[in-house]
Every structure is written in structure tokens, then in C-alpha cells.
Model the fold of this input.
Amino acid sequence: MNSSKKDGTVVLNANVLVLDDEPLVRLMICTKLEQVGALVSEAACCADALRLARNTDFDVALFDYRLPDGDGLDLVRQLRREGFSLPIAMLSGEAADIEAEAGNDLGICAVFTKPPDVTKIAETLAREAACQAVQKTEYVGRYAYWQADPNGMEAFAEWSNNEWLAIDLSLWGDVPLPVCLMECIEMPHLGVAVVGASQAMHEGFKRMGSEIEFVANVDELAALSRRPFSPLERAALLEVPQLRC
Done:
């Protein structure tokens, strides 16, 4: 994914979510993003944006701060709790307040003031989307994705700390799974998925008693990541207030 052509023209071949309750502002921004190649989805409130984010694999997003049913930073916090790692930029007339409130914990990639400089927004989102494309080898949606290799367990400890885990066993073969990996899967997580496991492995995991999702490949894992949460999964995401449009 290139962020510019050789002549310096911005290119944004990305799936972008734009959240703003002002129709004119939304029109200005979305028109510019579409002109440079983006596929844009629009939302006018937090509830709509949350629904879209849960059901679409966005590369990058732009959120307004003050909205009819909450504020953009609360929505960012919700998405981070649910494991979404996409770059999110903020737009507001209160840019200094946003930067102070967000700090370094939410992964806000940029803060833009109103009225919006649509060219600068397009350039920034293109750069962030390009960086995200490189990182997607490590994440599939909300899941931290790790392709298990009997000869490459050194990265396992860092990978296993994520709340949403996906382990790809398609290259594992008949080698017995190590105890440390089995123990990690049994630890409390918001979600665990196993990719490409044999039928024998399925039975072994079921005997563990853990709630594990089984998928055949990475495409199915991406679809699983976009699936709405079950009531039990929603309850596990702390006491986050319901967002209403």
C-alpha cells in the first residue's frame, strides 16, 4: 500500500471509517478521501461507528470529539478494550484538550482542528494506513496472530500476553504441543482462536475444557474477528456503558 505516487500525489488505497455528526464536514472529508482512492464508510454517532468497526476490517479511522451520544475518545477506549489496533485520528475544535486527555495510552495517531484541512488529513491517514499494512502480519482484526513453528518458540512469551489470541497450527505437523503453549491457551483471555488444526488437535483442545474457536485459515479468522460479541463476551469487556444513537 503506497501513500504517494512518484509525483507526490497522495494515494490512500485503504478502508476508512469517518465519524462526524456535521454533514458538511463529513462531506468535505469523505469527498477528499474518495478522490485519493479510499473506500469510505460514514457514521454520525458513536453507536453507528461502533457497529461499523465491529463488522468491517478498517485500515484507519477519523473520529470527531464531541458527538450526540458521547465523545470520540470514549469510543476509542471501547475499541481498544475490544482489541482493535487500527490507527485512529481525532478531529475537533478542542485539539489541545484532546491531546492532554488522550496521552500516550490510546494510540491516537494525529489530532486535527476544525475547520479541517482535508489535504493534510488525507496525507496523514495515507501514511498511517501504509504503516498499518506492514503491521498486519502480526494482527488479524482484534486477534494477535502467531504462526506456531516448533523451531521458533522464542517469540511465544511476548505474543501470549495479548487478550485476543490466534494461534496458527497449520505448519505444526505431528509434533506434540509444548506445555507452555497449552497453559497459555487455558489462561483467561477475551478470546482464543486456533487456525488450521487437525481433527485430532480439535479433540485434544476440547478435552482441555477451554472455549476455543476453530477456523480453517486466516480468511475465516478475519471473519470471526468481525463477528459481533456473544452476551458472555460483552460482559467480559468490563462495565462499558452502552452507546446509543
Q: What stands out?
A: The first strand starts at residue 15 and ends at 19. Residues 45 and 68 are 6 Å apart (CA to CA). Residues 4-8, 133-137, 237-245 have pLDDT under 50 and may be disordered.
